[in-house]
Amino acid sequence: MMGDIAIRVDQLGKRYRIGEQQRYQRFSEVLASAAMAPFRQLRDLANRDPLKHRHIWALKDVSFDVKKGEVIGLIGRNGAGKSTLLKILSQITEPTEGSAKIYGRVGSLLEVGTGFHPELTGRENIFLNGAILGMSRNEIKKKFDEIVDFAETETFLDTPVKRYSSGMYTRLAFAVAANLESDILLIDEVLAVGDAAFQRKCMGKMGDVAKTGRTVFFVSHNTGAVARLCQNAILIAGGEMEEYGPATEVVAKYHSESTSVTAEIDLKNYKYRSGSGELRFNWARIRNERGELSSQFSVGDDLYLEFEIEVVRPIDRARLAVTLRASDGLALCNMIDVDSGFEFDRPQRKEIIRIRIDDLRLYPDTYSLGFWSGNLSTTGAYDAIDACLSFHIVDGGRLTQRRLPRNAGILFLTPQWSRESERASVWAA
Amino acid sequence: MSANTVSTSSSAEYDVPLLDLRARHGWEILDVADIWRYRELLWILAMRDVRVRYKQTIVGAAWVVLQPITQMLIFTTLFTLLGRFPTDAKDGIPYAVSLYCALVPWKLFADSMSQSSESIVMNQGLITKVYFPRVIVPIAPIIASFVDFCVAFVVLIVLMACYQIVPTLAILSLPFFVLMVLASAFAVGLWTSAMNAIYRDTRYVFPFLIQLGFWVSPVVIESSVVYNSSKITPLLRIIYDLNPMVMVLNGFRWAMLGKPAPEMQAVITSVVGVSILLVGGLFYFRKMETYFADKV
Q1: For chains A and B, what is the number of CB pairs under 8 angstroms?
Q2: What secondary structure, in 3-state letters, does A101-118 show?
Q3: From B47, which residue of chain A is nearest by alpha-carbon distance?
Q4: Closest residue, chain A, to B195 (C-alpha)
Q5: Taking CB atoms and an 8 Å limit, are A28 and B201 in contact across chains?
Q6: What phi and psi values does residue A195 have, to the nearest 5 degrees?
Q7: 3-state DSSP call for residue A198?
């Protein structure tokens, strides 16, 4: 009965204090207040959570069971609470209420290469990283060859890691983590690193791990991977558990409700954004060649995107970018203004920006657009909204009358073909 | 209300969870079993710092000794110029040797404590990504500093050989004094590392306190000068003796050079004081560690 559960989460909640966080960050202030109200201060020092500050619940009332050997996915938008849940299950942070019971040894992969020290060699870092992940020295020694093999870095084992290319670095880091022998594996987005070949290798390894009967708890934005690898999935939104069921169903629900397919979207009160807020996106619309609001396009059509930005606090320049994602969340394109020769300097308080994407060469499917703006000299964004406005590419249109199969691909190219026979070459029109 | 209970079942079927994660209330002390389970990680973290430092080979190892030797030379020259040494000239031990004898354990304490204080903040990458008993983090730099201590200690032996000073049987008490240094550094480190992680302004005070400690402790100015001074009232003397490093440094000088032993009451006061600080630190650290990943 109880014996087949790996993780039991019961009404888990996590509250963070926000806003006036600076108030208790200075010990000198704590001392000063202590002088004025000693007992209250001592109690607060112990509790560290006086309720007079504002709080947000990053997680609230989350309950679910994960059976042994299950591969379960966790999806949701940025800021929904996925990482918080993983951190609690990994014992990195404590829940505010509720409980999480774990029946088995846990291996957590929240970041690739945790603890890697640049001055140490690859060999030394394998032992360091392995120990950090919870492997004993003997375990690491036994799996050493497997790790090096997976990482394909045998020749560089005795070079300091600071000399590794980023690809080698991630391969080595993942290789150590992939060989972690634990009953339960918690993975947070670590598959989003490395090149395509490496990603395939990682996916393969994930599949193997799943087959060995270990319980895997997998957080990812790559909903295609989640649908492929996981039996069940949990959808988290706003800190609460919205959906729990077979992975393909949960993924479909996630996509259907996360984008507006009405050719326009009001972003003023849109919640799922990040950024410091100096510049904000107010709304966005898609129009076709005739200027009408439309969310349906044929292959080869021109798409007109218009959106309004508002400058909330003074800035002297900004970068603007529009992101394009396929239906499974795959990032297709990041259209940055400067790449098209568009310099967005001295933004006025409110401006309407228009983009024309010529000749959409995408296979029929649903695609979504996201918006980003920031100042590239710092690392933060002013406003970043992912995948909020969708449009469809449908069959038919001026390029081809054929019905195009959905699984043929993403990019619809029509290159020039030619043929050569013994007599002469003839170019096809 | 319960702590994170950890049972030691094998990985067969269990009805009792291996981990029960819930909010902790109240005060609790170390989970020693957990630390033992992660002892290899502690060793590796300690050795990571040592290995990186000594990997630069000659420079790294030399700096460990260069610093106390330079200090010794500077102060000896200074007092030679002044014409008087802050030491008891009658016992025949050259000031330079006596000074160096105190510089070595002081360096162990100061380095351990300052690196321990910064350890949580410096390792925030690890702390926010991986679980291990957080108390390992302030312990690791103390072990690394101990390695440095051993190297500097060898130079002390060499120095003593040059001046033909032979230690008495009192040298057998040396491990006790070394232990006191480590315990003090750990006790203080528990408090300061937690405070540095939670509060943003404490890190500016601690280096200053170490500087202050350097002058108040009998490193440069030996205790005999203080005890024999007419300006030191009995109250001031008690306050002076409250500093555990007074007992430790005098103990070192006694063990290695044959200078007068620290008084038993000073030893007892210091041991009790450090123990209280240590136990208090363990409770405080454990209470604050739940916030490290959130705040740091």
Answers
A1: 120
A2: EECCCEEEECCCCCCCCC
A3: A128
A4: A27
A5: yes
A6: -85, 180
A7: helix
Q: Which residue of B has its CA nearest to A116?
A: B126
pLDDT digits (tens, 9 = 90+) for B58-100: 666 777 888 899 999 999 999 999 988 888 777 778 899 999 9
- B40 lies within 8 A of chain A by CB: yes
CATH H-level, domain A2-21+56-256: superfamily? P-loop containing nucleotide triphosphate hydrolases (3.40.50.300)
Confidence (pLDDT) at A372: 92
B225 pLDDT more than 70: yes
Angstrom distances, CA of residue B17 to CA of A102, A214, B54, B80 = 6, 17, 44, 69
* Beta strands per DSSP E along B106-145: none
Answer whether residue B53 shows pLDDT above 80.
no
- Contact between A175 and A125 (Cβ < 8 Å): no
For the record, the structure tokens of A153 come out as 């870095």
Judged by a CB distance cut-off of 8 A, whether residue B122 touches chain A is: no
Q: Which residues contact B246 (CB under 8 A, 6 or more apart)?
A: B217, B218, B223, B240, B262, B266, B270
Does A349 score more than 80 pLDDT?
Answer: yes
* pTM beyond 0.80, yes or no: no
The answer to whether the CB atoms of B131 and A8 lie below 8 A apart is: no
Given a contact cutoff of 8 angstroms between Cβ atoms, the answer to whether A293 and A263 are in contact is yes
Interface check for B199 against chain A (CB to CB < 8 A): the answer is: yes
Class of domain A264-408 (CATH, top level) = mainly beta
SS3 category, B221: coil
Residue B74 tokens, joined: 């500077």
**Domain locations along chain A:** 2-21+56-256, 264-408
Domain ranges of chain B: 33-284
